[in-house]
Amino acid sequence: MLEIKDLSYQVEDEKEKTKEIIDHLDLTVEDGKFIVITGPNGGGKSTLAKLIMGVNTLTSGKIILDGEDISNLNITERAKKGISFAFQAPVHFKGIRVVDLLRLAAGEKITTIEACEYLSKVGLCAKDYVNREVNASLSGGELKRIEIATVLARGTKLSIFDEPEAGIDLWSFQNLIKVFENMRQEIKGTIIVISHQERILNIADEIVVIENGKVKKKGSKDEILPELLGTPAAASIACEKLGGDK
Ligand SMILES: Nc1ncnc2c1ncn2[C@@H]1O[C@H](COP(=O)(O)OP(=O)(O)OP(=O)(O)O)[C@@H](O)[C@H]1O
């Protein structure tokens, strides 16, 4: 179980004024759940994900994973505890091939065939990609899907995906939905997806709406989604529906 208690994250703006990006946020995520976090742009979703992963350091509060306070652990230590994170904008790894990245992620000596299976799951023709270097020659969408494949390969107890749909074309998006539907069915750990996409919200066990650095709403898909689609905040979801521009 992931417990976030009274979490705050502040930064100093250009005028040296303190800005509260995450504002005394409380959230409990039970094991084996597929959670989708949504809410208006700038509400604090990515920041929250980075705080859970340890990319950003919290100002105050606690992050507890399975009863253990991980607030003071660094990214590597948290990764070892079983947290994976697919960034909104994936990073390049010059000199490393896709297959190496998948092996590093899996943490064991997976065969090329197994590596290819992960790539196929995210809709990439494995033989075209498995030996390619993870550099700027890959498009944003390709990189994003490779990154999702690495999170699948890691298969950790907590996987966080930040806007997996960003930069993904229509065809690949259909595929991505299947990837998440399968993950949801075969769920071994907890999955947190940050998304504005109605089709991803539709497969959630629970939806969490984050606004102004706080949890505005939390509940089952059936409770939250109709309400969300009837509010002004829904405009951003409606605009980003399948085929819409991000
Ligand atoms: N280091 C920082 N310094 C100043 N402002 C920051 C910093 N990090 C985040 N912010 C601000 O905090 C707010 C929340 O950002 P965040 O990326 O978490 O939003 P989000 O909910 O993920 O938005 P989106 O839906 O657009 O991805 C934004 O206004 C952002 O500009």
CATH topology, by name, is: Rossmann fold
CATH superfamily: P-loop containing nucleotide triphosphate hydrolases
> Order of strands side by side in the largest beta sheet?
6-9-10-3-11-12
Largest beta-sheet details = 6 strands, mixed
Structural class per helix/strand content?
alpha/beta
Sum up the overall morphology in one term: globular
Number of strands: 12
Tally of helical segments:
10
Helix content: 25-40%
Distance between the termini: 32 Å
Q: Which oligomeric form is depicted?
A: single chain
Bound molecules: adenosine-5'-triphosphate
CATH-derived architecture: 3-Layer(aba) Sandwich
Beta-strand portion reads 25-35%
How many separate domains? Answer: 1
- SSE sequence, one letter per element: EEEHEEHEEHHHEHEHEHEEHH
What does this protein structure show overall?
The strands form three sheets. The chain has a six-stranded mixed β-sheet with strand order 6-9-10-3-11-12, sandwiched between helices. The protein has a four-stranded antiparallel β-sheet with strand order 2-1-4-5, with helices on one face. The longest helix is centred in the C-terminal third of the chain and has 16 residues, at 170-185. β4 and β5 form a beta hairpin. The chain has a single domain (2-239), classed as Rossmann fold (3-Layer(aba) Sandwich). α3 packs parallel to α6 and α4 crosses α6. By secondary structure, the chain is an alpha/beta fold. The chain is built from ten helices and twelve strands. Adenosine-5'-triphosphate binds next to β2 and α1. InterPro entries: AAA+_ATPase, ABC_AA/LPS_Transport, ABC_transporter-like_ATP-bd, ABC_transporter-like_CS, P-loop_NTPase. Pfam families: ABC_tran (PF00005).
